[in-house]
Design brief:
- The protein is an alpha/beta fold.
- About 40% of the residues lie in helices and about 10% in strands.
- It contains 13 helices and 12 strands.
- The strands form 3 sheets. Strands 2-8-7-6-5-3-4 form a 7-stranded mixed β-sheet, sandwiched between helices.
- The longest helix is centred in the middle third of the chain and has 18 residues.
- Bound molecules: pyridoxal-5'-phosphate.
- Pyridoxal-5'-phosphate binds next to helix 5.
Length: about 400
């Protein structure tokens, strides 16, 4: 066999979202793009903010010698300093450029973080439902995935967390605001999680990291303040990107940041730098590092997403779906009216041309995910299909 067993397994696990997206493309050819309503892929509709374009123009008009060349693997010191200053402003923790490494998107950042801390057989805890590629990222570095449940509101079950931390637990990989549920882990949850980790660190004599995948941290609603793991746990690694807060996922710009008080801080940072190189990234895109440096405090208009959140949430509730109100990100994760989420998603697709993703893609049967980072018209056009199935399955009259 040409393709390894590991890759074959990974391709099966991670194929749902792309499959729906590709089936959507085929359906658009068959029925016309205006007759297929695609809520399957989290590709933000918003254009980047004007400040992003201003920075591109500035660089185009004032290029400097060497600006497309190699640099330190960690990234430009000025950009790392700017990221650190923003994190300090947000968290009050005294980060400097020595705590930050630029990365190739959040996906690249998570892989750098995991490769740095994992030996074969080390365990990484994740909460279900999860972002589908976590499984593959952990396996990339010979880690063992330890999936744990969330409660009825999709908050981590901290009692179960405590029971499941063992001598091989190296990290808890969290994602808040969450894809696919939209929940935010509040200060109380983060504080209790950190207490548990500290207790277990003392018991097993080794650091247990929170690896925080937080590309949606600025897409947060109702005036809520993002509770950063940095303020709760000194063994926190932020692995994130500007993909969603600047609406530039194709540009692949992100970073890894380590709490300044972490154990073995300098070695960890050297590890991140080494892993950036040997994972084949070499460095984060040079041009984008120059673009994002001066716009660390800029974000796309979050109120637009909040408006979409309100629209879709209110409609789903009106139709009788059981659904948690998202506090951030741009996904919503209602309960399916029938147990078989795959059958339900296919019915929505085949009978009503609405494309969504079944809960099984996120490790949790019985739910389905819709994205609302789409335009108003598309969102409205999805409602009749959702309503028809709500009526068929007696959620509403
Ligand atoms: C939870 C989560 N983590 C990571 C990523 C990957 O982000 P990036 O495109 O910055 O690599 C995504 C993208 O949708 C995501 O939803």
């Amino acid at each position: 066999m040409a393709v390894s067993e590991r890759v074959k397994k990974g391709m099966v696990v991670g194929s749902w979202i792309r499959r729906m997206f590709e089936e959507g493309i085929a359906m658009k050819k068959q029925f016309g793009a205006e007759n297929v309503y695609d809520l399957s892929l989290g590709n933000p509709i918003m254009e980047p903010p004007p400040e992003f374009k201003r920075e591109i123009k500035r660089l185009a008009n004032h290029p400097y010698k060497g600006m497309h060349g190699y640099m330190e693997n960690a990234g430009y010191p000025e950009t790392r300093a700017a990221v650190a200053a923003q994190l300090k402003k947000e968290t009050g923790i005294n980060l400097t450029q020595n705590d930050v490494i630029m990365a190739v998107g959040a996906a690249g950042a998570i892989n750098v973080a995991l490769k740095t801390i994992l030996d074969p057989g080390d365990e990484v805890i994740v909460f279900i439902p999860w972002f589908v590629d976590y499984f593959n990222y952990i396996e990339n570095h010979d880690g063992v995935v330890k999936p744990l449940p969330t409660d009825e509101n999709f908050q981590p079950r901290l009692d179960v967390l405590e029971e499941n931390i063992g001598p091989r637990t190296r990290a808890v990989l969290i994602n808040s605001p969450n894809n696919p549920t939209g929940v935010v882990y509040g200060p109380d949850t983060m504080s209790r999680m950190a207490d548990i980790l500290r207790k277990k660190e003392a018991e097993f004599g080794a650091p247990i990291f929170i690896v925080s995948d937080e590309p949606y941290k600025k897409i947060i609603y109702d005036g809520m303040k993002y509770p950063s793991p940095l303020t709760f746990h000194r063994h926190s690694i932020i692995a994130t990107s500007h993909s969603k807060d600047l609406s530039v996922p194709g540009e692949r710009i992100g970073y890894v940041a380590l709490h300044p008080d972490s154990t073995d801080h300098d070695d960890m940072i050297k590890g991140f730098v080494f892993c950036t190189r040997v994972l084949g990234f070499i460095n984060a895109p040079a041009f984008m590092q120059n673009v994002v440096r001066n716009i660390q405090d800029v974000t796309i208009p979050v109120s637009e997403y909040q408006r979409h959140r309100d629209f879709i949430y209110n409609n789903l509730v009106r139709m009788g779906y059981t659904v948690n109100k998202p506090q951030g990100a741009f996904y919503i994760f209602p309960k399916c009216p029938i147990a078989d989420d795959v059958a339900f998603v296919h019915e929505l697709q085949n009978e009503h041309h609405v494309l969504t993703v079944p809960g099984v893609a996120f490790g949790l049967h019985g739910y389905f995910r819709l994205v609302y980072c789409v335009d108003d018209t598309l969102l409205k056009k999805c409602m009749p299909g959702l309503e028809a199935l709500a009526k068929k399955y007696k959620l509403m009259k």
